[in-house]
Design brief:
Number of domains: 1
Strand order of the largest sheet: 3-2-1-4-5-6-7
Bound molecules: nicotinamide-adenine-dinucleotide
CATH topology: Rossmann fold
Distance between the termini: 27 Å
CATH superfamily: NAD(P)-binding Rossmann-like Domain
Structural class: alpha/beta
């Protein structure tokens, strides 16, 4: 299926590796032009170069921290200056630390709120005025299955990512008249560098082989395996596309069936 987004311009945050990079690749495969950001300039430049070479699309890269509202503002302005429009925005960032309520400090809450909620707000605020004028826009947030089913020991993610989903649902209603669609995606266990690092760290801490840790995770996943980043990227690219023109205000799990609830 042609997703109908050739030459559309997409801003993808936190995209030098992992899920953000997979989304960038999927959009580039459809011929979208990209503006990418992440903190590490070298890794980001390598990602931008490999996407340009693989898909032949224009890619702008800017090293920044998504919790820096001024830097996000300049990044979107630079994207607009380079491409003359912005059609698609994908909000993403690193995850908050794993903790139970008793271990969290107020500073943990403030930092997690900045990292996962305010970073989304900073990006959306900059993108909306352009999208409103052109009466076309797609915004997708990358959160977690914790939005649908809280995970033990992840209280920061459980609480703050649900707020992101609430923001998206509200914006979907508020901006529908301008043809700007807002959707949230909830990754389950997906084999990115980060998840691989988590598996190795848990294996070392518990003195068991890495396969044992991955095996414990996959036993609870109906599809019986970790997700592949490209499987995640293709669902997000669809939600960012012309073809998804009647989909807004959703939170979609991309999780191999691991969420046990109906919705
Ligand atoms: P990753 O560590 O592989 O990639 C994260 C990317 O974000 C990197 O490009 C990194 O440079 C960038 N980044 C992190 N913090 C940033 C910041 N403050 N400013 C700018 N860039 C920043 O992680 P991932 O596995 O791709 O996960 C992406 C998001 O999805 C995270 O929030 C994670 O918690 C969430 N998530 C991942 C999984 C999974 O299984 N991979 C499952 C549920 C939720």
């Amino acid at each position: 299926m042609d997703l109908g987004i050739k030459d559309r311009v997409a801003v993808v945050a936190a995209s030098s590796r992992g899920l953000g990079k997979a989304v960038a690749e999927a959009l580039a495969a459809e011929g979208a032009k990209l503006a990418l950001c992440a903190r590490n300039e070298k890794t980001l430049a390598a990602t931008a170069e490999s996407i340009r070479n693989r898909w032949g699309v224009e890619v702008l890269g800017r090293a920044l921290d998504v919790t820096d509202s001024e830097a996000v503002k300049k990044f979107v302005a630079a994207t607009f200056e380079r491409f003359g429009r912005v059609d698609i925005g994908v909000a993403n960032a690193g995850g908050p630390p794993s903790k139970g309520f008793a271990e969290t400090t107020l500073e943990d809450w403030r930092q997690a709120f900045e990292l996962n909620f305010m970073s989304t707000l900073y990006l959306v605020r900059e993108l909306l005025p352009h999208m409103r004028k052109q009466k076309w826009g797609r915004i997708v947030t990358i959160t977690s299955i914790t939005v649908k089913q809280p995970t033990e020991g992840l209280i920061l993610s459980n609480a703050i990512r649900a707020a992101v989903a609430g923001l998206m649902k509200s914006l979907a209603n508020e901006c529908a008249a301008d043809n700007i669609l807002f959707n949230n995606v909830c990754p389950g266990f997906t084999a990115t560098d980060r998840l691989n690092d988590v598996a190795s760290a848990q294996a070392a801490a518990q003195g068991v082989p890495r396969e044992e840790i991955v095996g414990r995770w996959t036993r609870n996943i109906p599809l019986g395996r970790l997700g592949r980043p490209e499987e995640f990227g293709s669902v997000v690219a669809f939600l960012c596309s012309e073809r998804a023109g009647y989909v807004t205000g959703t939170s979609t799990a991309i999780d191999g069936g691991v969420v046990k609830g109906v919705y």
